[in-house]
Amino acid sequence: MNKTVAQVMTPTPITVTPEMPLKEAIAILVEHKISGLPVIDGQGELVGILSESDLMWQETGVEPPPYIMILDSIIYLQNLGRYEKEIHKALGQTVADVMSNKAITIKGNQPVKKAAQLLHDKQIRRLPVLNEEGNVIGIITQGDIIRAMASD
Questions:
Q1: How far is CA 15 from CA 3, 18, 23, 68, 105, in A?
Q2: The pTM is what?
């Protein structure tokens, strides 16, 4: 299969903005039966991705980090910055509060094989496809790749 990402991707995917209320984004995921959404700013540039796993914090809550006490001092055994991020996600009200802001992306002119490798290596389900200006022009998922394999 020598196709490019642009030939296989889903063009013009549904996107959300960081300011969107979380309930609206969840409704979009459910209505369209999708598991993630690219998050774009006012210029159409990708700023993150919202996935089902980002939303799990809303239901599961956050466990306090383990600590020990020595001579009236508390010593945390885990990074407190990570704990604060988890609390922020669990209590988030907007897309920006819970999204992952380090989205892995691919360009449309890349081979599908590269997309498949990224999806596999990074253990992710979707890749936003960007044009040269950094705008989202599509999304490629494992399902898109399987359908392309079947059509060959």
A1: 25, 10, 14, 44, 15
A2: 0.75
Number of Cβ within 10 Å of residue 1's Cβ equals 13
Tokens of 97: 């509060």
pLDDT at 53 exceeding the cut of 70: yes
| Residues present in the chain in total | 152
How high is the pLDDT of residue 37? 94
For the stretch 54-99, pLDDT in tens is: 777 655 554 555 555 666 665 555 565 565 555 555 556 889 888 8
In 3-state terms, what secondary structure has residue 39?
strand
Distance CA 79, CA 91 (A): 19
C-alpha to C-alpha distance for 108 and 128, rounded to whole angstroms: 10
130 DSSP β-pair partners: 107, 136
Superfamily of domain 5-151: CBS-domain (3.10.580.10)
Would you say residue 147 has pLDDT above 70?
Answer: yes
What's 147's DSSP letter? H
The tokens for 100 are: 């992952």
3-state DSSP assignment of residue 3: coil
